[in-house]
Amino acid sequence: MKRRRDYYYNLAKRSGYKSRAAFKLIQMDERFYLIREGYVVLDLGASPGGWSQVARELVGDTGRVIAVDLKPVRVPGVEYIRGDVFSDETIERIRERVEKVDVVLSDMAPKISGVTSWDHARSIELAERAHEIARIFLRPRGHMVVKVFQGDMIRGFVKELKRDFELVKVHKPKASKPESSEVYIVCKRFRGADLNNMSDGDNHGPRDEEDT
Ligand SMILES: C[S@@+](CC[C@H](N)C(=O)[O-])C[C@H]1O[C@@H](n2cnc3c(N)ncnc32)[C@H](O)[C@@H]1O
Fold first, then answer.
1. Is there a domain that residue 201 lies in?
2. Helix residue ranges per DSSP H, 61-192
3. Nearest residue CA, atom 5 of ligand 1?
4. Beta strands in the chain (DSSP E)
5. Ligand 1 atom closest to Cα of 22?
6. Full-model pTM
7. Residue 106 near ligand 1, beta carbon < 6 Å
8. Residue 161 in domain
9. Which residue owns the Cα nearest ligand 1 atom 10?
10. 40 lies in which domain range?
11. Which residues are annotated as catalytic?
């Protein structure tokens, strides 16, 4: 039987994006001002590459996008590292390419088991790993977005994130299917060790700080 495709699926096809997920990042960037021209973006769990394509457009020719995934990412102008985010080798391979990045993105998702609490816990593990990686590579005042499936562990995770970022919002972009339990945690302005020395003029707040 032919599956019914939705609005964003068709829009992605028409716009040349590799996934409908591209629109989630576009919408979050429009609302929270995450990615600017010239930025270096680390995209974790990037395959097939919709977010990487959007990030590439936003950073332009003076920026860089480094995509990491177990599966291939084939996007012109995007640097790809094939690997598991939990392996030290992957961290070393990121380190060979960059010292610091401006934005860390994670749309990583576990293989869905169908057991809500299990899938939630696995998604939190991936998000916590993205946070660990951000702590290594994110520059002070940089931003991070991570996906999690809703559940009772979000509260504790958000608390952890609030220690590291000035602004933390749980957000569900319009392009995220209402029936999906996924939400994104948008984290702005990393409180890095050298925060007091930074003066990059990046003082944008979100357009709308309402929690969803
Ligand atoms: C929802 S998809 C990402 C879609 C992507 N943002 C896009 O716009 O095309 C989630 C990805 O997370 C990746 N992933 C899950 N666990 C991972 C891990 N441990 N290391 C690296 N990638 C992982 C999967 O391989 C999958 O490609």
1. no
2. 88-97, 116-137, 154-164
3. 46
4. 40-44, 64-69, 79-82, 101-106, 138-149, 165-171, 182-190
5. 8
6. 0.91
7. no
8. yes
9. 108
10. 20-181
11. 147
Q: What's the token pair of residue 27?
A: 């919408």
**Residue 189 within a domain:** no
Q: What is the pLDDT of residues 111-166, one digit of tens each?
A: 999 999 999 999 999 999 999 999 999 999 999 999 999 999 999 999 999 999 99
Q: How long a stretch of residues is the chain?
A: 212
Q: Is 21 in the pocket of ligand 1 (CB under 6 A)?
A: yes
CATH of the domain at 75: 3.40.50.150
- List the one residue out of 165, 138, 146 whose CA is nearest residue 108: 146
> Which residue is it, tokens 């395959």?
47
43-81 tens-digit pLDDT: 999 999 999 999 999 999 999 999 999 999 999 999 999
Q: Which among 5, 52, 45 is positioned nearest to 25, based on CA atoms?
A: 52
Helix, strand, coil share of the chain (percent; to 5): 35, 25, 40
Number of domains comprising the chain: 1
